[in-house]
Amino acid sequence: MTDAAETRPPLVSHVSVGVTDLARAGVFYDAVFDALSIGRVMEHPMGVAYGRAFPEFWASVPQDHGAASAGNGAHVCFAAPDRQAVDRFHAQGLAAGGHDAGAPGFRPEYAPGYYAAFLRDPDGNKIEAMTWVRADVTGA
Questions:
Q1: DSSP class per residue in 45-80
Q2: Could you tell me which of 51, 52, 47 has the C-alpha nearest to residue 62?
Q3: CA–CA gap between residue 60 and residue 42 (Å, rounded)
Q4: pLDDT tens digit string along 90-101?
Q5: Smallest Cα–Cα separation from 99: which of 77, 78, 117, 80?
Q6: Model-level pTM?
Q7: Cα 32 to Cα 65: distance, rounded to the nearest angstrom
Q8: Which of 5, 21, 15 lies closest to 51 in space, CA to CA?
Q9: Looking at the DSSP assignment, which residues form a beta bridge with residue 106?
Q10: Residue 47 phi/psi, 5° resolution?
Q11: Cα–Cα distance between 10 and 27 in angstroms, integer?
């Protein structure tokens, strides 16, 4: 990597999803991010933010105070450190009011070693946790 590349900001600063009930969303996102060792880093009356050091993901009431709606085809994927974290993400999300959108497992149609799980939050936003697993571990 060149020095210029090292000083560039990340491609994405943060992502936000609209929610209708901030308290309910907080329960759900506290659970799924706990599974990935990520915590709340900020909150205010309109939203809660999660990240490793700064707000990278927001669950917020829409700024126009209109109805929150999930985008068809849109989703956010979070990097997990290992398969166990992906499994916890899915289980804890379901226990906190989320809905299954794809159980934990390998997705060879995406790429060899791609292990992921998908959830819908209580407002229908689609989220994913994934990790790469070596081929010699998967038997692939």
A1: TTEEEEESSS--EEEE--TT-----PPTT-EEEEE-
A2: 47
A3: 12
A4: 999 999 999 999
A5: 117
A6: 0.86
A7: 25
A8: 15
A9: 115
A10: -175, 165
A11: 28
